[in-house]
Amino acid sequence: QSVLTQPPSVSEAPRQRVSISCSGGSSNIAYNAVNWYQQFPGKAPRLLIYYDDQLPSGVSDRFSGSKSGTSASLAISGLQSEDEADYFCAAWDDTLTGWVFGGGTKLTVL
Amino acid sequence: EVHLVESGGGLVQPGRSLRLACEASGFTFDDYAMHWVRQAPEKGLEWVSGISWSGDTIHYADSVKGRFTISRDNAKKSLSLQMISLRAEDTGLYYCVKDSGITVAPTNGFDSWGQGTLVTVSS
Question: What is the mean pLDDT of residues B34-59?
Fold first, then answer.
């Protein structure tokens, strides 16, 4: 059972917009930044969003992040088949004194 | 370009030990915190341990505390993970990960990952 809760899967049609939620608590998301990672099958994860809503260099602006209270969201607009991947949220947990990840969400582009 | 190359994985019996290593290049190693993150087969990501740029601050996940020891050698640009009393649930792909900052947390995320080294704990 992951500390951060994500839906196991989401799906949407090409060119549409999809959102992936990440629910946490007062010891993690509420007071610490949320980062998002993208992972393709058989590949290492890569940083997709940092500090809640910031895009690293080289990441498409079709990706965006937001946070409110103890929840965060990753949105992907203009869906493309190459966006099919697993997405993980992560945050520092002050109680556990460690990084915690969501269980991951598998995105399917229909 | 950042390169992180892990080694040391393999098949080990429960209760035995293993030492993982990570060789870093392409960045100023002692400017950044480093971590180990693992992924069990067909499962999600689990942070294992992190160490600050100087080695002064270290944190472990509860699941490995007392059994795993992280260390770094800035002169050799290397990161290590000594694992003892291994359990079946320690099985997974272990990634060496570069932090975007100097501390273990909170920071702006893990910005570079190695390809991982596979650890299998089984009799």
Answer: 97
Chain B touched by A13 (CB under 8 Å): no
Both structure tokens of B79: 């990161």
Burial B90-110 (b: 16+ CB within 10 A, else e): bbbbbbbbbbbbebbbbbbbb
Which residues of chain A lie closer than 8 angstroms to B113, CB-CB?
Answer: 44-46
Q: If you write DSSP's letter for every residue of A41-110 in order, what string do you get? A: TTS--EEEEBTTTBPPTT--TTEEEEEETTEEEEEE-S--GGG-EEEEEEEEETTTTEEEEB--EEEEE-
Cis before residue B106, ω within 30 degrees of 0?
Answer: yes
Q: Å from B104 to nearest chain A CA?
A: 9
User: Model confidence over A20-65: pLDDT tens digits?
Assistant: 999 999 999 999 999 999 999 999 999 999 999 999 999 999 999 9
